[in-house]
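This part of the workshop introduces the protein records we will be handling. An example says more than a description, so a record of this kind follows.
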Amino acid sequence: MNPKSNIARNIIHFATSNLYRQVLGVLTTFFRPTLLGPELYGLFSLLNILPMYATYGHLGTRTAMRFQIPQLTSTDPDLLANIKQNTLATTVTVNVLVALMVSLYALFYAPAGAHRDGWMLISVVIILNCVYEHYVSELKGYQQFVLVSRITYFRYTANFLFTVFFIYYWSFYGAVMALLLSVLLSLIQLNRYQPFSIPKQIRFETIVQLVKTGAPIVALDLVNVSLKSVDKLLIVLLMGTTALGYYALASMLIGFLMNIPGASREVNEQVLMSEHSSLSVYQQLSEYWLKPMRFTAYFMPILIVGAYYCVPTFVDLVLPDYHHAILPAQLLMVGSYFLALSYPCRGIIVANHWQKQAAKSGAVSVVLSALLIVTTISSGYQLPGVAVSAGAAYFTLFLILSLFIIIRFRQSVRAFSTQMAELMLPFIVMVAGIATVNYFTEQLTVHPVFVSMVALILFMSGYLPLLFLGKVLNRYSLPTRKQKSK
């Protein structure tokens, strides 16, 4: 198959499956917030963070394994088999320990009732999910994104159906049980594509080497994860689970918006790893960094603004009790523009083994986010202030990682400034367009659906000329696989 079409096929399949997952998440939002209420929905959102952090219990071994699969598949299959076994052993061992600690907290510290039972059930989800993520990571390493897409369809369809039926009858308990059963059935389905095996040859030296290789990469990923969750944790600590219930709606929408840049990154990173040794500095920067960022810069505003104007209508018609979630969601979505731009940085950093230093630099954005959030909440700005603080931290992360790459490659900072100015243009047009459209539509007294439609039409009529100009000037294009340098 033509390399270009193969990459495009993987991106389309993977992005479509992730989009499907996010759409089902939006549909599920109709049931969870309405039937649980803000407080229990906030508790559910808090518990949902635990498997996300626990999945990094592989200590970097799984990440190192994934990036070595393209290289070792044909050169040293025996070493690869050993790496996979030791990775699975490390992942399961650490996650069992994490699940045990969660269970102990539930038994001795969590309030009786839904809180205690929820923590106990999520401990089981942690163990099942770590096995699921391991074998999905293997498939990604082999670039089997079509199979990954199939299992994604299966898992999140099952989760949606279980949620619809269980939450109606068993409320909060049904929501958590839906998570548990969907990952359990997905493991059974996944075993058909990637048969499970029990690790038999555990080598401590292999695990140590994998941790040394992968831990810095995980540290960089943890910066990203922490940046997207520190706001939720601080909201729980300073404002309570009810406030998190409102804010969780905004976080869910961010996951939806990050689908396409996330899927593109997953696919292109595997290609970058396999070709890195033959790529020049110019090729790395132009094909695997600037090109994805430019494409993201020009097209993310369309996704952001589409969601921006649909949220008020959705909340007013479907979730009237969540009116306090509208403004924070809109502000956070606007700031997510910079989070999306930061995505292509990881592949360049990992391919050149700079992840340890980059993680230290990127951690500044997490600290800044925490300080800004605490300050805004203490000053009385509440959830809108949290959303603005998170957006500022997204911009900081993007700027820090971009400067890091430029400095490491010893490129001109002046030329970098020109590139950054170009990437800021779509953001400026987006913000100006939103402000202008809001000015003209805020006086309308017609049905909210009609207001949203008018707003989207007005924005697109002003934004399409920028897209057209960018295409004419060849400022963006779809990322494709280039011929290796000789």
The two ends are 22 Å apart (CA to CA).
